[in-house]
Design goal:
This protein has about 240 residues and is an alpha/beta fold. The chain folds into two domains: about 70 residues, ATPase, nucleotide binding domain (Nucleotidyltransferase, domain 5), CATH 3.30.420.40; about 170 residues, ATPase, nucleotide binding domain (Nucleotidyltransferase, domain 5). A six-stranded mixed beta sheet has the order 6-9-8-7-10-11, sandwiched between helices. Strand 8 and strand 9 form a beta hairpin. Helix 4 packs antiparallel against helix 5. The longest helix is centred in the C-terminal third of the chain and has 27 residues. The two termini are about 20 Å apart.
């Protein structure tokens, strides 16, 4: 069993994982507040992987090292079980790579459009075991916050399950503008790609995916933590590679 630590922009996730089975998952508001001793005490964990798109990785790595844990730090140079067709691999976020690896770990080799709804929305293409790249767009909460922060009078709003047009008040206009804007954006990607590749599968993941599963048809909602599963697969892959040397 492995420990997977994913340090994101808004929270830290720590999971005890075996294969694609997540036995325990805990979240913390920051790396400095991540108390990993309880999860390490409860489970027979031998190795750990730490990936970061946020801050505080060094703190977690030092803590695990002091506890005697073998730690793999995810970097752009970390070997992964898929190819990367990307012009600037040193700028490629570990979460995007891990989601691609996770898709293959959970669903098998295939062609995937992976939409990760988080602080940013990433729309990435994986074909034939190769990460082909993708696009990055502001996430749902980022859009709500930006409309409030960069205007003088617009309120900060929350997601809505309703679909309304035209909106009849300002709060509703913001809610619908953000929710429908993201919906039409993702539907455009899906329509364009499925016209070129009818075999492609659409996978939704990330904390805000639940708001769009009912709005957008023909997508697989990855109930598992796709990034966590991918990071665990990367850790196992590197352990096997080292054992073969």
């Amino acid at each position: 069993m492995n420990l997977v630590v994913d340090i994101g922009n808004t929270q830290v996730k720590a999971a005890a994982v075996e294969g694609t089975t997540i036995t325990a998952l805990e979240t913390f508001p920051s790396a400095e507040q991540a108390d990993l001793k309880p999860i390490l005490a409860r489970y027979p964990i031998k190795r750990a992987i730490v990936a970061s798109t946020g801050r505080g990785a060094a703190y977690v790595i030092d803590m695990l090292s002091e506890l005697g844990m073998q730690v793999l730090v995810m970097t752009p140079d970390t070997p992964v079980p898929i190819g990367k067709d990307y012009l600037t691999p040193h700028t490629l976020g570990s979460d995007r790579v891990a989601a691609a690896v996770g898709a293959e770990a959970v669903y098998g080799r295939g062609d995937y459009l992976i939409v990760d709804f988080g602080t940013a929305i990433t729309i990435d293409l994986v074909c034939g075991g190769v990460f082909r790249g993708g696009n990055i767009s502001p996430g749902m909460c980022t859009r709500f916050r930006a409309l409030h922060d960069y205007t003088s009078r617009l309120p900060e709003c929350s997601p809505s399950d309703e679909t309304v047009f035209p909106a009849r008040c300002t709060t509703e206009a913001i809610e619908q503008g953000v929710m429908q804007g993201i919906t039409y954006e993702i539907e455009g990607y899906i329509r364009s790609l499925t016209e070129k590749n009818v075999k492609i599968s659409i996978i939704f993941t990330g904390g805000d995916a639940k708001y769009f599963v009912k709005r957008i048809k023909n997508a697989i909602f990855a109930k598992c933590e796709l990034v966590i599963c991918g990071l665990n697969r990367i850790l196992d892959y590197n352990a096997t590679e080292q054992a073969d040397i």
